[in-house]
Amino acid sequence: MSAAEQTPGGEDVTWGEVAPEAARRLLVAAVEAFAERGYHATTTRDIAGRAGMSPAALYIHYKTKEELLHRISRIGHDRALEILRAAELRDGAPADRLADAVRSFVRWHAERHTTARVVQYELDALGPEHRAEIVELRRETEATVRRIIEEGVAAGEFDVADPAGTTVAVLSLCIDVARWFNAQGRRTPDEVGAFYADLVLRMVGYRAQK
Amino acid sequence: MSAAEQTPGGEDVTWGEVAPEAARRLLVAAVEAFAERGYHATTTRDIAGRAGMSPAALYIHYKTKEELLHRISRIGHDRALEILRAAELRDGAPADRLADAVRSFVRWHAERHTTARVVQYELDALGPEHRAEIVELRRETEATVRRIIEEGVAAGEFDVADPAGTTVAVLSLCIDVARWFNAQGRRTPDEVGAFYADLVLRMVGYRAQK
Predict the structure, then answer these.
(1) Contact criterion met (CB below 8 Å) for A174 and A197
(2) Phi, psi for residue A50 in degrees, rounded to 5
(3) Which residue intervals define the domain HTH tetR-type in the entry (chains A, B) (predicted)?
(4) How far is residue B40 CA from its own chain's centroid?
(5) Which of A15-19, B70-74, B184-188, B204-208 has the lowest mean pLDDT?
(6) Cα A93 to the chain's mean position, in Å?
(7) Is the residue at B41 inside a domain?
(8) Domain extent at residue A174
(9) From CA B210, how far away is CA A143, in angstroms rounded?
């Protein structure tokens, strides 16, 4: 995990719910290893080694490498959905809520780009049940954004011929920030988030209501 | 390589320049293997096996696994740049040329999604010299799209405050099609291309000139 993925104090909030501390340390090590070498090229021995633990100690917390990937993917997808739901449920016009959703979702993908890449690119490595569970979370994520867009259309704020297709494109634009974002680049996660909120309002044909 | 990545006749046009046929067969096998298991989890023995050849026969054409990845990445990036240059240099207003660029670029990423994923996600696995060469091609790709956008701004067709940032977002939107595109999905590569051309004209604030 890069320095950019830590809070200024160095504490990693993404994995805050993972206890005990050894289990959390292993998860952070797994994200690093999967991001660097890919899921299939990483062994549980590599992960234990990175966490400064023995393979036997890893086994106490995770029975398989797939269990580690599932835990990472689950936490990542839960967090993404939580961010979008918060934006959906706040007060305000659809345009404000859509802009808010995009800003926070992009910020997360920029700040946590290493985690987000693992979550997005290693989906096929999950076992069938875990994969089905994550696919369902992704469906809910999509439905959340689609509802905001449809509300905007109903309110006459947005001009969108295909809400489903536009939802896929908006989420895709935001998710791909994890691929290209560079912590040494010219924009901060906040700045990319604000810029993308404007672009997305253009994509939905936003017109301020009189 | 999936069936969707073949022409209707089954011939693979992407690798047409690769000769002899054995070298081409190895490249196609390498794309499949890297896409399924990741670069680091794939051995030259795996690739030779998929191509129905011996490791010694592979070695005649490619000295290392990295050489295979570089060849794939180079061909993919050359093709992407070629597509965008053709759109830049054709006749027509900036809006027509930008729409054309997006349509062809998206179609390529949808049709060749397996190749595009390898090209995009395994960039870090290239050696330093090969990586620098590909980074330079990506810079040219970005510069091509940026020139079309700047021409549109100069002509008063587009309303873009930050051409560099908008260029990154437009290319990112198109490239990420390779991640989510599903040959069994509801839209064909052509349909996604046309839909995305409209979205991108919205992103650049296109207004038809009187």
Answers:
(1) no
(2) -60, -35
(3) 20-80
(4) 21
(5) A15-19
(6) 25
(7) yes
(8) 3-203
(9) 39
Q: Are B172 and A177 in contact (CB under 8 A)?
A: yes
Residue A208 lies in a domain: no
A210 domain-assigned = no
For residue A130, what are the contacts with CB-CB under 8 A and spacing of at least 6?
Answer: A66, A70, A73, A74
Q: How far is CA B51 from CA A188, B18, B23, B74, B76, in A?
A: 45, 15, 10, 21, 20
- Dihedral of the alpha carbons of B133, B134, B138, B143, in degrees to the nearest 10: 20
> Can you read off the two tokens belonging to residue A58?
């890893």
Identify the CATH number of the domain in which residue B126 sits: 1.10.357.10
User: Encoding tokens for residue B136?
Assistant: 């330079």
Q: Which residue, chain included where needed, has tokens 């959703």?
A: A101
Q: Where are the alpha helices (DSSP H) in chain A?
A: 21-37, 44-50, 55-61, 65-89, 94-111, 113-121, 128-154, 163-175, 177-180, 189-203
Tens digit of each residue's pLDDT (9 = 90 or more) over B108-138: 999 999 999 999 999 999 999 999 999 999 9
pLDDT of residue A209: 64
Q: What is the pLDDT of residues B58-91, one digit of tens each?
A: 999 999 999 999 999 999 999 999 999 999 999 9
B173 CB neighbours in chain A (<8 A) are: 169, 172-173, 176
Structure tokens at B69: 């990845």
Chain B residue at shortest CA distance from A206? B202
Residue B71: how many CB atoms within 10 A of its CB?
A: 19
How far A19 CA sits from the closest chain B CA (Å)?
Answer: 30
Q: Does the residue B209 lie in any domain?
A: no
Output the six-digit token pair for A183.
């912590």
Which ipTM did the prediction report? 0.91
| Residue among A151, A205, A143 nearest A171 (CA) | A143
CB atoms within 10 A of CB B17: 10
Note whether B210 contacts A: Cβ–Cβ < 8 A.
Answer: no
In chain B, the number of structural domains is 1
Q: How far is A41 from chain B (nearest CA, A)?
A: 4
